[in-house]
Amino acid sequence: MPPPTAKPHGSTTAATSFFSAIKPPPSTPPPPLYTILFLLLLVTLGFYFLHHHSPTTTAAADFLTPPQQTPLRFREQFLSLSTNATVSAYLHHLTLRPHLAGTPASADTAEFVHSHFRRLNLDPRRAAYRVLLSYPIRSSLTARFPNGTAVALSLAEEGAKKTGETEEGRNGAVVRPYHAYSPSGAAHAEVVYVNTGSEEDYRQLAALGVRVKGRVVLARKGGELSRGGVVRVAEREGAAAVLLFVGGGGGVERGTVMNGMGDPLSPGWAAAAERLGLEEAEASGRFPRIPSLPLSFEDADVILRSLGGQTAPPGWVGPGIVAQRVGPGPTVVNLTYQGEKKEVTIQNVFAVIKGLEEPDRYVVMGNHRDAWTYGAVDPNSGTAALLDIARRFALLQRNGWRPRRTIVLSSWDGEEFGMVGSTEWVEQNLVNLGAKAVAYLNVDCAVQGPGFNAAATPQLDELLFEVTKKVKDPDFVGATIYDKWAAMNQATSIERLSGAFSDFAPFLQHGGIPSVDLFYGRAEYPVYHTAFDSYEWMVKHADPLFHRHVTIAEIWGLIALHLADDSIIPFNYVSYAQQLSKYTDELSNLLDGSTISLHPLVSAIEQFASAAKEAENEVKQLREGDGRDGLTALKQRALNDRLMLTERGFLDADGIQSRHWFKHLIYGPHGDYKSKLDFFPGIADAIHELSVSTTMGRSGQEAAIQHEVWRAARAIQRAAYALRGHIFVP
């Protein structure tokens, strides 16, 4: 049954349905007195609404809606609608075939999600973009040993064949292991083992007299560097090619090595008619210049055991790794890779639930849909949860629920290549999102193992705590998520969103929109980006009964319901001010002994803390009022706008130096992977330059750090002014 269309408050239909519950059964004629009283009450109601009903007041809605149909009751109903079998069925369907972005199988998943939204009458939409993605054509790797023998390494996932998950896949094709945006190329050279491929690792090799120039480096993933970061460091060191493996055995980890976010041919604007050429510096500079390939642990082990040369430094042994020597050689490898970069169409899919009172305010929920292979964990555990939330919202609509603000459920495409789908959409809608988006709620890998985890901008901390106190822990009887989360961390630990590793990045770090990221599991799971990331693995290892999927859906959905339905947006900037003060203390310890003054930061944070306290008091006063008069509604709207727009104050038009697309000066990726700061990215980069620069004296570099301190302070001041709503400093 489709959701009923919204009826005006005070309509005859609404009044009749309300009073039908208290009328006597039809088989018993109503007593005359009852009839007279009923008609009198009905006429009175009609007269009242004819003369007093106003779209800016909620008194009529509160009167007509049955007592049980309040936002609280709808949240309780939302929790009561859980069914793990439904989530399981969604995931099973989504993972029948591999669905790499830009392929027909990926388009099929877009149609599946769109059809699901359409069947629920949730106003489905699409946004398609023509973007540059990267695919493999052929690859090979042969190792030649000192005794004259040679082995052609398979570059495949042999273990997958033993479980029936062949290289051709089930009803589709598993893409061969590769690194997206790696250049085509070949290398015939000795191998050097470089541990995790960091600058420090290369310095240790240099101290041993080992050079990598012109050689193929073998690195294990597991350090602080990203996949692309490992390749770029190797390129700077003069390596001819990179082989990258993950310790511990299992499959082969695919992934991107592109630098930056979104479509590389439309940097900073949505993919449309204007496109950069592949050879233009702004586009080509995002790709490595040397080829790289992912390798299974088993194939890497064959090479590692054959190396001679210098003894490996202490600490260069990971799980199962028996590397005794680092080379160079005497083993020689012959590596070839041919790939293609081509423009393809990707599709974002949406469901829109229009708000009743504030339709121009958006709560955006998002998960990406594309996967390197079957994607049971990454990302379709999150997709299944999103589809289940859509089902629950549709059922709430049938019970009369209409959100106060508009909810947008988003299914992104092209995330695995660099958050392409979400970035293009944010860039296309940046002005509207900047003026109207309340928050972005992200779930990527919903379930990858035990242990709830959350990351968020600090104004959402209090809401996260409140919601997790309402949701039962699926792994501990009688406990809530909050109970076990607090016990596991000795305190409730909410991480921050400084990295650019999922679809929250364009919303927060480019658009300044408060964001949340939720998932189950603490560490990288063993089938990450491999052909083993299947429905079968999920059932056997991560969530056999799909209880954790249900839990993520409940937390995710409740956060959205609060943000969409609460009369006052549940943001608490006192938490943000406390976090900023903590960051400044850490920065002070790091800069102890320098001439850099943090007074601008301290002063700005004091202003922000004062504004946050004033806003908190204003929220309390409005909540204590009756909330039914038009003036109160206007005050709420004005306060909500300030609460919503405050995060935008942390943006700077010039962005982070050398990475201008990232505009947020509190949270964003920094250039130094060894940095002790996961906040103030501009300051962190300037501090890094102080330690490595050979062209600028210490005084000049400290002046650069001081400038970044001032920039961050000005951003915090802007946020304080936005929270107060003043255009003149009080």
UniProtKB/TrEMBL annotation:
Catalysed reactions, as listed in the record: Release of an unsubstituted, C-terminal glutamyl residue, typically from Ac-Asp-Glu or folylpoly-gamma-glutamates
Cofactors (names): Zn(2+)
GO cellular component terms attached to this protein's record: endoplasmic reticulum membrane
UniProt keyword list: Glycoprotein, Hydrolase, Membrane, Metal-binding, Metalloprotease, Protease, Signal-anchor, Transmembrane, Transmembrane helix, Zinc
Membrane topology: Single-pass type II membrane protein
Predominant cellular place of this UniProt entry's protein: endoplasmic reticulum
Residue ranges of domain Transferrin receptor-like dimerisation in the record: 596-723
Gene3D superfamilies recorded: 3.50.30.30, Transferrin receptor-like, dimerisation domain, Zn peptidases
Family: Belongs to the peptidase M28 family. M28B subfamily.
Protein name: glutamate carboxypeptidase II
Organism name: Linum tenue
